[in-house]
Structures are given as structure tokens and as C-alpha cells.
Amino acid sequence: MDTLTAREFMGIFDRMTEYLDLEGCKTKEDIEWEILNSIAIMKRGVRKAKKESTKRRWNRMVQLMYVLGKDGVPSKSKELRGKPRVSFARRAIQYAEIHPRSRLALTLKYGKDKAKKILRKRLLKRLRTIARKKK
Questions:
Q1: Is residue 14 part of a domain?
Q2: Which residues span the domain enclosing 36?
Q3: What is the C-alpha to C-alpha distance for residues 87 and 93, in angstroms, rounded to an integer?
Q4: How much is the average pLDDT of 71-86?
Q5: Residue 60 lies in a domain
Q6: Does residue 1 sit within a domain?
Q7: CA 17, CA 75: separation in Å to the nearest integer?
Q8: Long-range contacts at 22-29 (CB < 8 A, ≥ 24 apart)
Q9: What is the average per-residue pLDDT within 87-93?
Q10: pLDDT at residue 127 in the model
Q11: pTM of the entire structure?
């Protein structure tokens, strides 16, 4: 996770929040707890699934969430191979501390839906002020 750019990390964060509810997560342990809870739910879905394709899809998602939550993304550069990696939870908390008004920080504080509404209101307010200045 430490070698990823902010844009790449936000892509991973968006994919993870499709399956996680990170509302109210303030620490790394809170996010890891949510990841483990969602893994348990997905494993139950794998057991109850009737189609093989559904089982494979959920198994892949379980593996992805487990790796991202525990180890983070493996580094691609030769210099960082074998070094400790930053997990998804730690990177998310660090990013939220650095950028407290970002979408990620709002998602951790309010949840994904409310964060989208807040960002939409900010955008509309900014557009209104720009429109007023042009008159």
C-alpha cells in the first residue's frame, strides 16, 4: 500500500467499501474488525451458494479482502520487495489524517452514502459561488 499512488489507493478503497461499511471506524483495529466481519459473511455466502461461479466469485473476494486487510498490496518495485508492507487499514487511517476533508475521511466518519451527499453539496456550493462571480 505504501508504494501505491493516492489515485490507485482510492480505487482499491472504492472496491473495498462496496462490501464494507466503514462508518464510525476511527482506528486501524476498527477497520480490520469490519474486514473480518465481512469475510465471515462472505464465507457463509460461499457455503450457501448453489452455482459454482458464485462460489468462485465470493471465494476470490474473500481472498482479496484477507490479503488487503492483513498484508496490504505487494510492492512492484525491486527495492521494496521483502520489506514490511502497510496494510489497507493503516493506509486508510493515514490518508484520512492527512486529508481530513477527503471522501475517504468522510466515509470513515459518516458512511459511504452520507459522504457522497456531503461531497455533492460542497460541489454545488462551489459551482454556485463560481456562477455568482461570473455575473
A1: yes
A2: 6-134
A3: 10
A4: 64
A5: yes
A6: no
A7: 22
A8: 22/92, 22/107, 22/108, 22/111, 22/112, 23/107, 23/108, 23/109, 23/110, 23/111, 23/112, 23/114, 24/108, 24/109, 24/111, 25/108, 26/108, 27/93, 28/87, 28/89, 28/90, 28/93, 29/89
A9: 87
A10: 94
A11: 0.77
| Other CB atoms within 10 Å distance of the CB of residue 105 | 18
Task: Give the pLDDT score at 2.
Answer: 59
How far apart, in whole angstroms, are the C-alpha atoms of residue 31 and residue 29? 5
From CA 68, how far away is CA 96, in angstroms rounded? 18
**C-alpha torsion angle, residues 78, 79, 85, 86 (rounded to 10):** -110
Tell me the pLDDT band of 16, cut-offs 50, 70 and 90. Answer: confident
116 is a domain residue: yes
Please tell me whether residue 102 adopts helix, strand or coil conformation: coil
DSSP string, 40-82: HHHHHHHHH--SHHHHHHHHHHHHHHHHHHHT-PPP-SSTTTT
pLDDT at residue 115 in the model: 94
Structural domains in the chain (count): 1
Residue 75: pLDDT band (50, 70, 90) is low
Q: What are phi and psi of 96, to 5 degrees?
A: -65, -35
The CA angle 40-42-45, to the nearest 5 degrees, is 115
